[in-house]
Specification:
44% strand, globular, 158 residues, mainly beta
């Protein structure tokens, strides 16, 4: 179908450490459980309410798997962008369906909202995308915007 879009954006916290699996072919996959919550005040009772939704996330992009392996842990706050996929498998003689958010090679985004703990600038969010290299695409925008890296002693005549 032309003109259709399958895109899902999740901002939430990891419910457990990333689960990494290796294939005999040498490839890897990373499974995450991400919680998103909504809060509201009940009009009738005035009581504060909360509802948490759990999302299964599967990463097939090798570069993003490396980032997840190195930086993510239970409780990490992340921004994930992928596509929704449903797959079918057999368990105990019956068909089971599961729906998950999938980040495939050259598609998907992973942004560490807590920052990378062992890198300079850890207080800033580290963004990892699915571009050709899958590496850090926009690590630190703030210094350039504030002039932190501007050097006016250059030989450029204008």
């Amino acid at each position: 179908m032309a003109g259709s879009v399958n895109k899902c954006i999740i901002v939430g916290n990891l419910g457990r450490d990333p689960e990494l699996k290796s294939f005999q072919s040498g490839g890897r996959v990373c499974n995450l459980r991400v919680a998103t919550s909504e809060h509201w005040k009940d009009k009738a009772s005035g009581e504060r309410k909360e509802r948490t939704e759990w999302h299964a996330v599967t990463i097939y992009n090798e570069n993003l798997i490396g980032v997840a392996e190195r930086y993510l842990k239970k409780g990490s706050k992340v921004y994930l962008e992928g596509q929704i996929e449903t797959r079918k498998y057999e368990k105990d003689g019956r068909e089971v369906y599961t729906t998950e958010i999938v980040l495939r090679p050259y598609r998907g985004e992973l942004v560490l909202l807590d920052g990378a703990p062992d890198e300079p600038g850890a207080s800033r969010a580290g963004e990892f995308g699915s571009g050709a290299t899958g590496g850090r695409r926009c690590a630190e925008r703030a210094p350039a915007a504030t002039g932190g890296y501007f050097d006016d002693s250059s030989d450029i005549p204008f």
